[in-house]
Amino acid sequence: MEPDKGRLDHGAHTLPVRIYFEDTDAGGIAYHASFLRFMERGRTELLRAHGYHQSDRLHGPDAVAFVVRRLTVEYISPARLDDVLTVVTRPKELRAATVLLEQEVRRGDEMLVSATVQVAAIRQGRAVRIPDEFRPALTPPSA
Prior knowledge:
Elements lengths: L6 E3 L2 E7 L13 H18 L15 E11 L8 E11 L3 E10 L2 E14 L2 E2 L7 H4 L5
Antiparallel strand pairs: 1-2, 2-4, 3-6, 4-5, 5-6, 6-7
């Protein structure tokens, strides 16, 4: 069975995530780094929803990878064991070699975590222009 990959809605991607025991500390509260993993999944599934699989471009002469260049996170409220959360990922600003994304982790209508993430395209350790095939997935809806 294919895992839930979320859905696109007006340029934003939403991905459901459940808090498992492995995501928590001894008190059943989600560890802060767990949210970073959830947001990474959200960014990956945003691309996948547009038909782009990162593993397809990791090797060969046109290989390109996306790496986090800058990350600002605000932890607002904790998540707990068995909570079902939603990771929301929105492109905010697309440049030649980078994209700025806004991400939220929510429990229903309550925002738990807010983040701004700058991701860069690289080839052989150097920044490169984001390939044209990915640009529609990373272009903000109002652009």
